[in-house]
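Re: the request from the purification team.
They wanted to know what the chain is likely to look like in 3D before they choose a buffer screen. I agreed to run a prediction and write the result into the notebook, where they can find it.
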Amino acid sequence: SIAAGVNITYKILYNDAVAMTGGQQVGERPEGHSVLQIAESLHAEGAKKVIVVTDEPEKYDGVKVPGDNVAIRHRDDLDEIQREFREIKGTTAIIYDQTCATEKRRRRKRGTAVDPAVRVVINELVCEGCGDCSVQSNCLSVEPLETEFGRKRTINQSTCNKDTSCLKGFCPSFITVEGGALKKKSKSKANSPFELGAMPEPVVPQLARDQVWGVVVAGVGGTGVITIGQLLGMAAHIEGKGIVTQDAAGLAQKGGATWSHALIGESQDAIRTTRVGTAAADLILAADPLVAVNAETLARMREGRTHVALNTHSTPTAAFVRNANWQNPQDDCASEIARAVGLDGVGAFDADAAANALMGDTLYANPMLLGYAWQKGWMPLDYASLMRAIELNNVAIENNKTAFEWGRRAAHDLASVQKLVSPGQVIEFKKRDTVESLVKRRVEFLTGYQNTAYAEQYKAFVDKVQKAEAAAVGKTVLTETVARYLFKLMAYKDEYEVARLHTDTAFLERVNGMFEGDFKLNYHLAPPIIAKKNAKGQLQKQKFGAGMLTGFRFLAKLKGLRGTALDIFGRTEERKTERALIGEYRASIEEVIAGLNAANHATALEIASLPEQIRGYGHVKERNLAAARTRWADLLAKWRNPAGERAAA
């Protein structure tokens, strides 16, 4: 490209290690092959400009950079750099320097890398569920959280690698906890599987001459799938059995489908392949339902032969990053597995929930699943050899043994484990919300949001819709929809409300319950009065210390200024739009109930649900509102001219 004078920008991704095959260094030299060596090579070849982007630019302080056309920038400047490079004639290069997430976690566990004393927590009451944090970070540790007020986001603390790029999402719901540590389960208070009474020993399958037992561990990268395969291999080796393992790994960070094949033979000569063949699996350890129904896994199953130990918790996929309304198909996955191997061939429980509740970390879900399968009698290995394999692995030995025992207990008496995971909720019959109960909770919220009069305006309008719907079609679905979405618009999150929700006692108690030691809270906000803007004209967030909580408490008391001449925040275009939306929505619903009948009831529901699309803050909300307005106009046109709609069809 350089010799030909091509206008092109190369992106070189440097992740510091060959992580998926054991974390070997990059390059064949004893010292490895560094970013600066790569930059120097590009400079020597004649690249017009080379920029290294990194999340740790400070590590290059005082380091001699080769050539005047090589620079170090923060990764947050990537978009700006790309815009600069498209104007430069000739060949340019961006070297993206960031340690692989899997390798970073591995080094932290081994104590060879610093584990930052920082955690991210989302206040779900402030969160709008827009998904901008997922878009900005592309991180699957940002997971969906279903709440009373719709889908929000939460951080899976067990899988979070502390990248903190989710903070770039334009949303004030994020706080960072600096110092301290996640509160560990007290050993004195924690339940122990060893104290719940003896369990019957399972009948361990005995391998016949030349018999091979095929095991497939199917899960997602970065959760210990490969480790389970290694434990099986070591246990078989200890017993003098034949063993061949082969790993097929997906994305290292999180979410990539990963398999570990283990062939356990009566002798080494009995094993003639390196992978479990088609319809030849005796056991599938399905650590993730979505990977379990992958064609690669289903092809190994056969009814009458294969048993599946299924973790019913499914990790959100990359689809959730792209689609905020993504629905987890884990129940459909379980049904498909049952069709493949028969109901008697499946044993299932939520290993993630059990590991989190009983062990304090979802990373113990896989050894728990291993114990479950062993207790079911689906594995031709002895208890002693499996325990010895865990010891030789030399990582969290006692915790992994305890997780194995919890898995055994789940296989023997699942109800007793579920009772410990969710006390009093083993069997729960949840009554369907009535209009009255739904409205009552929102009236209470709006009273706290503003005052009683404001809440009564909401209730009066919902009552009006309820009477009209009952008279027209004898249903309450439209009323429930209006109750949800009129509330959403009326409880718009301005500065006063964000302050009120961040000082909410329940939220602060939850944070204090999650962490121990000496820690402080930081808030990440973009106050329109003082926030800087990027090249696109978008407000940029900045960090505020623990003193912001005092400011929030003061600001929350000023909610009475909302919408008055003294409301300095209410003068922005965003706040004016939010107030106007309430009136626009009410006007649309007034029009709907005036002509409501059974034939157009479905269209009425679509119109009433439109605010679901209006999520986020600032430029994110503006973008979503623009899309919602287009849909709004189309639906109203359809409502006003149903005959024309049918003719067009």
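For the purification team: The first strand starts at residue 8 and ends at 14.
Please add any questions underneath this entry.
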